[in-house]
Amino acid sequence: MNRSDILHNIVSDKLVMTVIVINSLVLFLGAFPGLHKIYYNILFPIDYACTVFFVVELVLKVKSMGWKQYWASGWNIKYCGFRSSANIKDWKAVKVL
Q1: What's the number of domains the chain is made of?
Q2: Using the 8-state DSSP alphabet, how is residue 11 labeled?
Q3: Running DSSP on this structure, what letter comes out for residue 31?
Q4: What percent of the chain has pLDDT over 70?
Q5: CA triplet 22, 25, 31: central angle to 5 degrees?
Q6: What is the DSSP string of 12-25?
Q7: Which of 54, 57, 85, 95 is the 20 to 30 Å CA partner of 22?
């Protein structure tokens, strides 16, 4: 079993899809100003944890697969772009602080 197989067993597609669904729900709920104000103390840590998960996943996969092979997958390009654009409002908020 090589490193890529071990990584795939640890970070399964089901786990990644579960985190994507949770993160999408958090981003959706955060778009409503009333809910965002009420549940900020819950939504922000979940969003932050999802972001950390995705960054760790990216680093582990790049180390395992190599830079070119990782980006050869259209899924990785599309999802990385989606995730980055979804957090633009969060980066603006951090910049203000």
Answers
A1: 1
A2: S
A3: T
A4: 64
A5: 145
A6: -HHHHHHHHHHHHH
A7: 95
